Amino acid sequence: MSGQSSNDDIYLFVMRHGEAESPRVDDKSRQLTPMGRQQAANAAIWLKEHYCTNGSVDLALVSPYRRAKQTHDVVSADIVAEKVESNEDIVPEGSPKLVSDYIDARIHSATNGKKPIRSLLVVSHMPFVSYLVDELCHTYTTSLFSTASIAVIQYSLSQHKGRLVTHYQGL
After folding, report:
1. pLDDT above 70: residue 44
2. In whole angstroms, what is the distance from residue 139 CA to residue 61 CA?
3. What is the spatial distance between Cα 64 and Cα 46, in angstroms, rounded to a whole number?
4. From the CA atom positions of the chain, what is the Rg in Å?
5. Is 79 exposed, middle or buried (CB count within 10 Å of its CB: 0-12, 13-18, 19+)?
6. Statement: the pTM of the whole predicted model exceeds 0.90
């Protein structure tokens, strides 16, 4: 991982799904458009070139909504997650505090295990991704995420706090 600064820090990648088809009655089943697939592919290439040079992350947390799962599938062509979890809490109306606490607990429990988590990808939705970045970094700027954009957070295990390093906005 390029840019890693200390043994205490890990990288969190908070990603919004690619462009999806127009809203419909069942928001959960909306699919990616061809543009959304291209956006996700471009984001994966960027992430691999800049942060995931080994082509993997330790854990991916993915919203159960179709467009988020499809985005993760596209990203997986370039960046494979050693473990993938579908997470019902990272939907558009999810609780950022709950998920931030969950991420912190997962990271800390893994540090005492055989395989520590050094990189984690979250694939979710607006406005949740904005609020999650604020919660993880203890800032309240509510960044806007274009489709398939990725916030890169350097997260300190000892401080239980992240720092926004960059925000890839994509196409």
Report:
1. yes
2. 22
3. 24
4. 15
5. buried
6. yes
